[in-house]
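Let's practice the habit of predicting before peeking. Look at the sequence and jot down your guess about where helices and strands might fall. Then scroll down.
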Amino acid sequence: MTKILIVDDHPLVRAGFAQLIGDCPDLEVCGEAADMSEALKQVDATAPDLAIIDLSLAGGSGLDLIERIKARNSKLLMLVASMHDETLYAERVLAAGARGYINKQEAQDRIIHAIRQVLGGKVYLSQNMTERLLNGLVDANNGRRDIDSLSNRELQVFELIGQGVSTSQMAEQLNLSTKTIETHQAHIKKKLGLGSAHELTQRAIRWVMGQDS
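Done guessing? Here is the structure:
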């Protein structure tokens, strides 16, 4: 049996994936986790063959989790299942150590195929994303080229700004100092060509709303 760990902070999503995986006689769910801390414990306790990971987790980032798992267990395969924009995140999750990215909107129909693709030693991406990577295209629509220039941490801060999280709350959530958060905010403003904190907030809110739509 191939053991699979599900990491997602929504119980219904975990239940849905578990049911789909449970219908396959050669696959089994060996554990579930809602946040980074529990996910790392489950990796050590259950020794999964593959982990399905969401990018938005309680108390941490899925990208951070991927990097931490990769550092302590390089053989564990990881597949990201998320609602975030694939064109912005797919390359980032692959660089962090995951072997595929599937949007949750297509996961019900494609998750088992994606799992088997990754278990077979291949990378799973949507056809559109695969073509984009192969052709080396850059989609500049809606300022995506600018946002694509943000580092993983800057992108995380940018998203939290758009969610209305204060600087002090961000510092606590990300385990960083407020000065470091302010430095990230300054770098984001420079990269996006924004002149004030208000412009940054408005841009971040519009981007988050677009991600959630």
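How did you do? The chain has two domains: 2-135, 141-212.
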